[in-house]
């Protein structure tokens, strides 16, 4: 992973876990965050595959969570310093991560496209156990994720198509 993507990955994973919180306690929260972080990491590496791409998003910024907040109905209208992390949320990465969390086959294809196999690094994303599924019940619910996933689903499919050229 490009270290330049760390703020994008952290903020986007935080946005997902706040938007689709776990119904459990501290352990469930940690399991939910691990799944979100793995999905966001895969999505970010697909979206920004080179060091130059990562540097450019670091320079220009990813765009923030405003549209995502509006789509999910979480638009709080608060513009405080405590919410500054939201400026590092990447809408496309969040949408692609939502697609991966909702569709195990698509998640497997995405990880395979990155690593060449079903990497153990992404076990919680690819083969969640019962505890993982319970902790991320909302985070993995296809109907709840649908508005976010639909935003950039076709671009993810195009990126994973081995016969396609670079997708904007």
TrEMBL record:
Name of protein: Uncharacterized protein
Originating organism: Streptomyces griseoloalbus
